[in-house]
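Hey, I was hoping to borrow your eyes for a little while. I've been puzzling over a protein and I'd love to understand its fold better. The fold is given in discrete form, as structure tokens running alongside the sequence. I'd be grateful if you could look everything over and explain what you see. No rush at all, and the record is pasted right below.
>
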Amino acid sequence: MTQPDQLRLLAVHAHPDDESSKGAATMAKYVAEGVDVLVATCTGGERGSVLNPAMDRPEVWERLPQIRSEEMAAAREILGVGQEWLGFVDSGLPEGDPMPPLPEGCFALVPLEEAAAPWWSSSAASGRR
């Protein structure tokens, strides 16, 4: 449990793996100094890219959400951070002219009032977790 006077740091990232490629050293530094660090991961990264050619295989694509979850668990352990899933759907960075529709449940389609509401109240209202 966090003490009332303990410093806390919240890092918000769109996808699992962003915590490792964007700010991992900063988070590890603060954890080492006793700061309570929490990573809020907006999506499951289910429409992400596979940049490692050795992993660009059908069996990886079939299990991508599970693999992203396993990668996030490993990152939590290595970095020593807490982590919460916000439950939005990964948009997959759609491209085209005209742009294809965004997938249902992605952050860009959430009304501003819900997106900006405190997590504990908006997640209860929307069923996200």
